[in-house]
Every structure is written in structure tokens, then in C-alpha cells.
Amino acid sequence: MRVLGRRLGFYLITAWAAISLNFLIPRLMPGDPATALINKFQGKLSAEAIAAFKVLFGQDDKTLWEQYIDYWGRIFSGDFGISYAYYPSPVSDVLSASVGWTLALVTICTILSFVIGTGLGMIVGWRRGTWTDSIVPVTNFLSSIPYFWFAIIMVYVFAITLNWFPLSGGYSIDTTIGFNWPFISSAIYHGILPAITIVVASVGGWLLGMRNMMVTTMGEDYVRLAEAKGLSRGRIRYAYAARNAVLPSFSSFAMALGFVVGGSIVTEIVFNYPGVGSVLFKAAQAQDYPLMQGLFLIITLVVLVANLVADTVYVFLDPRTREA
């Protein structure tokens, strides 16, 4: 328990530092959201309207320390401010409308990539030196292709040439958003091509990592002892080799799940998918600091929580990581 307590304290300090940096960095950049929005009106606003805009975007005359205290209060209340790229929508509304799309797509793709990659890596590592090794260069080649180029090729072949899948979007515009089969089926249909792109492009990394760990684990003394005891090949493969070889991949998988909420920016842009990646891209283009702050804050906290969960589970899976 002391190990978990120390790690929890470390993550709490890290969260405080990340949130503080999230507050400071936009304020150290030149300009501010209120000024950028006011400039769009080219001097057509009155002094009262300009003052109201500055208060609306938190650019009033408060000191930096007062703004910092207010920032923490807004975090605990879930108030991230107003997005002027989607003005007058609050940042929380913009995030809630996009996070669900990203979680549905990228989470499923990350899990599929991990399961397929580690499963194939286990088989290839166990049967190293056979024809199964030819899978490694194929998957590495697919993973090395520039992500945006691979997505564009998928769109050109399957959406434009073959017309098997829709060209862009997350659902058909003639469906009503809600928990109904027409909308769900349309969302699944629109998500198949982006999902294939993400899985194919990322499965190679999981495969190569698991394959190398299997090769290393097969040379360990406890595996050789299991072979000398005459245990079945299946038990040696799963209970001795794969069980220990998957531990490093499990940590990477937990971190990958943490980054899920950040979306797959390139894929979402190419397919015009209504997820967090597209929102972050538009926020960066429009210099929407409140929206970028909200996005970075959520991504940071989710990554920290995912790593904390991974560390906790890892302690129970691998007794060697425990300290007296």
C-alpha cells in the first residue's frame, strides 16, 4: 500500500503542475481571445461592448493570482469558459458534443489494435524462424506509411472509387441524433473506414513489441524449467511466456487508452469526423484559447488517471514491482 500511496502522491503533484501550466501558457502567449474576437468587428464595437467581451472571456483587470484562484474554482465547477470559435457555446458544451464520438471510435480501435497486435505478436514470437515472421515486415510497412497519406488512399479507394463507404462525416444528415437504430447504424457505417485506417496503421507496433518480448521471454530460465518438467506447449506458451511478455505491452496499452480522449487528429480531419481531434484542430486555427485549455486539461487528467490505473494493476500482476 505504501507503493501505491507514493505513486498517488506523485500523480497528484503532476496533476497540479499540469493544471497550473495549462493556466499559465495561454496567458504567456501574445494576444488573448477577447482581442482576437474584437478585431473581427474592425472597430465597430463600443467601449462597453469591448469591456463586456473581456469580462466574458476572463480578460478583466484581475491580477494573475486572482485569475489563478478563479481558474481552479471554475475547474471544480466544470466551467471552462466560452468558446469564441463556436461562440456563444460554452466550452463544456463543445467538448460534450465531440468527446462521445472520439471515445466510440478511437477506444474501440485502440482495443482492437492491441488485441490483434499482441495476439499476432505472441504467435509470431512463439514460432520465430518460420513463415510467420513474414507478418512483421508487412505490418511494419503499413505502420510506416504516413498516416494522412494512408487515410487519403483509403478514402480514394473505398469511398470515391468503389463507393462502399461514405466520403466524410459521422452520420447521415437525414437521421435524427439519438438512441435509435437508424442513427446508430448510420454512425457505425460512417465509422468503419476511419476505424480500419486507425487499426491497420497501429497494429504493427503492438505486434513488433509483443513479438520481441516473447522472443526474450522464451529464453528465460523459468520457461526452460517448464519445458524440462514436461509441461504442455500450450501451458508454457500462455501461462509462462505470454503472461510475462504482455506486461510491458499492458502498460503501453493503458497509456494509449489515456490518449484516446485526445482523438486521432489526422484521421478525424481527413474523414471530417466530428470528434475531439477535429475540434482541437479548429480551436488551434481560430486561436480559441479557452477551448484549447479545456481540451488539454481533459487529455492531461485522463492520461494521468490511465497511468495511475496501469501502475496499480501492474503492482498486482507483477509481484516483482512491489516493495517491502
TrEMBL record:
Annotated Pfam families: BPD_transp_1
Segments passing through the bilayer: 7-25, 99-126, 147-167, 187-208, 245-271, 291-317
CDD domains, sorted: TM_PBP2 (cd06261)
Domain ABC transmembrane type-1: start-end pairs: 99-310
Organism superkingdom: Bacteria
InterPro entries attached to this UniProt entry: MetI-like, MetI-like_sf
Keyword Flavoprotein appears in the UniProt entry: no
Record-linked PROSITE patterns: ABC_TM1
Flavoprotein among keywords: no
Keywords carried by this UniProt record: Membrane, Transmembrane, Transmembrane helix, Transport
Membrane topology designation: Multi-pass membrane protein
Localization (cell): Cell membrane; Membrane
Entry-linked PANTHER family: OLIGOPEPTIDE TRANSPORT SYSTEM PERMEASE PROTEIN
Protein family per UniProt: Belongs to the binding-protein-dependent transport system permease family.
Protein name: ABC transporter permease
